[in-house]
């Protein structure tokens, strides 16, 4: 009996590869995986639970994610209820004590960010509102400074042996990011005060950073798909307060923005939204390079 | 010295591998400064509260009171068939839950029965800090066997559960006991589960001893195929004991024969589910195919209704069934579904076979289609049509309209 059990255990070990030895970081979204790569470098093994083509709010707590959460030393997510439909069940089913709320291995980026659009009144008649504020914090590069510091601190706490390397990588990132912010600030100057339309209320932080003004939203309520009647109302409203462009995220259905583009004669801009959201947005730096270039290109006269 | 946090032998064993160094108080690291006050609903000391309200309109061409599966003797507690006609409350439920401390969380789901009773569907305390891929829970819970069994009625893709679940597991098997689940430390998802329990509901029942009346084992694996596909498959075994369990047999003339069964039942469940969404983006379009095969073997002693002679003898029967269903969300908020159900009931393996009322062995089948529309993530309206060929004679046309509305806590759903 005993030998049979041992044999079965051995067979199991041989046919499925055990988890990696390097520090295992599971990111809920690609931007946090990219940030972890900047600070963890070769010391960590990281991947993202979602891609730029997926709505991070509608993810299945599928078997592969449970296995990845089971083996993670740290999980970094946006928080602010963005992942509320799947992260709690993923954490619970993983049976991994290291990444439970309250542990060093549980890091919510939104906790290091000044939240925008925090509702004064939470009522679902207003759509899928998030009580802690708009969760799409990754569209403002300034937000990465606080999250990078929090992540560096956690990595140093979990992997004490490599403290200095994380510290060094963090300082290096901080410096490069500050330079990039200056560059983007200069490049984005023409966008200041420009009126825009959003497909989903996904760009509050981007607008706050660049000084863009949101004059209309295609979704009648957050998370509710645009309807024909609402789209027509937006076209009418734009006659009174014209906008320069309509923005939608890489994972969203392009049709509502395209429809508005055709009917209100303004360019539709696909914003990469996260790393991997466009061919050029390969890391955090190129993500914002590409975002800015796309917005500026839309300013050019049609 | 850390206080002994749980009594019971199963927990003590688990406690040995409990690494206290990893444990810190819940939310100790939450930075309090940057965020505005979090509403009580999403944390703090107030338990999470969720309410699901459901309502149903049922129209059937044949009287649900005459619903039978040919050749099936079963406990009167088992709710077979389409329920009651006309308007009714569906399975409304109240969910309360939260973290008790840094080691234990818990939740209770109270089913608001249309008749006015409150039924404790689940009341569970579970570990949050065991680590090593282990999850232990105790209390009353839906067994983790199969795919559909642990899902709550509001998570079902159809108004009702498949015939095989209704007939062989009493719609959904739940029990009072202890469950241990372990996720292997491998890149491939492998989950093993074991449960023991009192044996409180069909196919178990009547446990008067100190021991367990139910044990179950399950193994599941799954993964992704590219970005767009994911799957899970598994095998489960449920062992139950019944003591003097009332089993009704129905004669063709409407007469009911109340027999009693004492013995063991072993139920096997094979389950598989495959999901597809373009680029893995479930917000817009997805397809889900799932199927399960259930097979039960009863072995024991049958005592016939006193009015039918009070005879007793060895009894055995093997019943099996399967279903395959697919769900397609063809545009945001709209889904269609198709389900095919089959049941097969073997002839009674007993010297008393001639004295049992009703048909000896039989088959049943049902086909269902549904369309549902979800105005938001928190509400759903469903229409379902079914053709049920379980009873001999003309088929039963069933028509349902159902609403499901959830309030409060944003529930996280299983795969």
Question: Looking at the structure, what is the overall shape of chain A?
Answer: globular
Low-confidence parts of chain A = 10-20
Radius of gyration of chain A: 21 Å
Major sheet: arrangement of strands of chain A: 2-1-3-4
Query: Count of helical segments of chain A?
Result: 10
CA radius of gyration of chain B is: 23 Å
Number of strands of chain B: 17
- How far is it from the N-terminal to the C-terminal residue of chain A, by CA? 78 Å
Distance between the first and last residues' Cα of chain B: 39 Å
Give the oligomer, counting copies of the same chain as homo and different chains as hetero.
heterodimer
> What is the number of helices of chain B?
2
Strand line-up across the major sheet of chain B:
1-3-4-5-6-7-8-9-10-11-12-13-14-15-16-17
Helix content of chain B: under 10%
Q: Per DSSP, what share of the residues of chain B sits in E-state strands of 2 or more residues?
A: over 45%
Overall average residue pLDDT of chain A:
90
Query: What percent of the residues of chain A sit in helical stretches (DSSP H or I)?
Result: 40-55%
Main sheet of chain B?
16 strands, antiparallel, barrel
Anisotropy-based shape of chain B:
globular
N-to-C order of helices and strands of chain B: HEEEEEEHEEEEEEEEEEE
Which two chains touch over the largest interface?
A: A-B, 63 and 70 residues
Task: Write a structural description.
Chain A is an alpha/beta fold and 302 residues long. In chain A, the strands form two sheets. In chain A, strands 2-1-3-4 form a four-stranded parallel sheet, covered by helices on one side. Chain A has a four-stranded parallel sheet with strand order 6-5-7-8, with helices on both faces. The N and C termini of chain A lie far apart (78 Å). The relative contact order of chain A is 0.12. With 415 residues, chain B is mainly beta. In chain B, 4% of the residues lie in helices and 52% in strands. Chain B contains two helices and 17 strands. In chain B, strand 7 and strand 8 form a beta hairpin. The longest helix of chain B has 8 residues. The N terminus of chain B is likely disordered. At the A-B interface, helix 3 and helix 4 of A face strand 7, strand 8, strand 9 and strand 10 of B.
């Amino acid at each position: 009996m005993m030998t049979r059990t041992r044999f079965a255990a051995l067979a199991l070990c041989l046919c499925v590869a055990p988890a990696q030895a390097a520090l295992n970081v599971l990111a809920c979204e690609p931007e946090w995986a990219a940030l972890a790569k900047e600070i963890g470098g070769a010391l960590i093994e990281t991947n993202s639970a979602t891609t730029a083509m997926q709505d991070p709010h509608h993810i299945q707590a599928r078997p592969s994610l449970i296995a990845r959460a089971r083996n993670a030393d740290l999980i970094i997510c946006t928080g602010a209820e963005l992942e509320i439909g799947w992260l709690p069940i993923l954490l619970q089913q993983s049976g991994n004590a290291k990444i439970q709320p309250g542990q060093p291995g549980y890091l919510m980026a939104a906790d290091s960010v000044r939240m925008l659009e925090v509702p004064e009144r939470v009522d679902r008649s207003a759509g899928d509102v998030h009580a802690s504020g708009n969760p799409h914090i990754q569209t403002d590069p300034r937000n990465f400074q606080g999250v990078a510091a929090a992540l560096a601190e956690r990595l140093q706490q979990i992997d004490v042996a490599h403290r200095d390397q994380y510290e060094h990588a963090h300082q290096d990132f901080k410096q490069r990011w500050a330079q990039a912010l200056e560059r983007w600030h200069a490049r984005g100057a023409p966008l200041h005060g420009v009126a825009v339309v959003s497909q989903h209320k996904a760009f509050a932080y981007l607008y706050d950073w660049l000084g863009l003004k949101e004059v209309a939203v295609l979704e009648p309520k957050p998370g509710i798909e645009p309807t024909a009647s609402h789209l027509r109302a937006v076209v009418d409203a734009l006659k009174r307060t014209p906008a320069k462009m309509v923005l939608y995220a890489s994972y969203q259905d392009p049709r509502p923005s395209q429809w508005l583009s055709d009917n209100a004669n303004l360019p539709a801009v696909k914003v990469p939204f996260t790393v991997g959201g466009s061919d050029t947005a390969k890391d955090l730096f190129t993500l914002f390079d590409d975002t800015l270039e796309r917005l500026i290109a839309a300013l050019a006269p049609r | 010295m850390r206080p002994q946090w749980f009594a019971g032998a199963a927990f003590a064993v688990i406690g040995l591998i409990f690494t206290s160094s990893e444990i810190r108080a819940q939310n100790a690291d939450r930075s309090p400064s940057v965020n505005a006050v979090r509403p009580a609903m999403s944390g703090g000391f107030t338990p999470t509260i969720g309410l699901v309200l459901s309502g149903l309109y049922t129209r059937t061409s044949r009287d649900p009171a005459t619903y039978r599966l040919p050749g099936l003797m079963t406990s009167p507690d088992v709710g077979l068939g389409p329920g009651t006609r006309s308007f009714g409350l569906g399975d409304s439920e109240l969910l309360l839950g939260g973290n008790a401390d840094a080691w234990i969380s818990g939740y209770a789901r109270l089913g608001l029965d249309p008749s006015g009773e409150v039924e404790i569907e689940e009341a569970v305390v579970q570990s949050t800090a065991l680590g090593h891929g282990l999850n232990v829970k105790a209390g009353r819970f839906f067994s983790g066997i199969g795919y559909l069994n642990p899902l709550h009625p509001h998570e079902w893709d159809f108004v009702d559960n498949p015939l095989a679940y209704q007939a062989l597991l009493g719609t959904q098997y739940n029990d009072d006991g202890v469950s241990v689940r372990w996720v292997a430390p491998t890149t491939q998802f492998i989950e093993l589960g074991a449960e023991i329990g009192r044996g409180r509901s069909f196919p178990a029942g009547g446990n008067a001893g100190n021991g367990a009346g139910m044990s179950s084992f399950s193994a599941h694996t799954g993964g992704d195929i590219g970005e767009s596909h994911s799957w899970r498959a598994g095998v489960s075994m449920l062992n139950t004991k019944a003591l003097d369990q009332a089993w009704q047999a129905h004669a063709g003339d409407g007469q009911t024969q109340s027999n009693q069964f004492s013995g063991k039942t072993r139920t096997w469940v094979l389950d598989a589910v495959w999901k597809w969404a373009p680029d893995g983006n479930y917000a817009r379009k997805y397809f889900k195919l799932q199927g399960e095969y259930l097979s039960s073997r009863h072995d024991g002693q049958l005592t016939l209704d006193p009015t039918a002679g009070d005879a007793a003898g060895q009894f055995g029967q093997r019943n099996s069934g399967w279903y395959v269903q697919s769900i397609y969300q063809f545009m945001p908020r709209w889904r269609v579904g198709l389900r095919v159900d089959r049941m097969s009931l073997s002839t009674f393996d007993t010297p008393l076979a001639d004295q049992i009322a009703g048909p000896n062995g039989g088959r049943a089948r049902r086909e269902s289609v549904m369309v549902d529309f979800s105005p938001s993530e928190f509400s759903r309206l469903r229409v379902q049509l079914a053709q049920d060929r379980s009873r001999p004679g003309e088929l039963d046309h069933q028509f349902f309209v159902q609403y499901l509305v959830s309030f409060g806590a944003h529930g996280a759903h299983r795969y």
